[in-house]
Design brief:
The protein is an all-alpha fold. The protein is 68% helix and 0% strand. The N terminus is likely disordered.
Length: 157
Amino acid sequence: MRAFWLTPLLGFHVFIALIGHAFAATDSPGQSYESCGLITSEYLTILQLSDRGLSAEALTESLPDISEKAATRVKALISLANKTGLTETYSTIHSEYIACARVVYKHHGAPGPGTRESHFYHCAGENKIRYEISMAAIIGAEQIDVARQLPASYSNV
């Protein structure tokens, strides 16, 4: 799938600089597939609420017991979306999710079947596939070329 992989480098660097260390800690063996998924979910929810008109101030004021660092990340994420656009910010978050899961795999491998962590592992893998297919569509890749690069389990899709 690497032929059509598109990493938004500028957005990625801005995201890391603004958001802080939630994903930046991904080179730590302490991360899990679940933590990668939860961080991603929180960021996507913030973007969705912001897109529906909630300000950074409204979000940070309504969240119970939010830390100063978390409030700063909320504001930075919304600022990034305002600067680079919603689509670019979504793309950056998804590429960070993939990177986070990749590092977890590097440190821990695949979790045991049927475990709680295995559900998050499979979710991360499915997200990666969907994200790469979306990026391929955006850059105009031919459907047949994309299909050839998918894992065999997707051959009937």
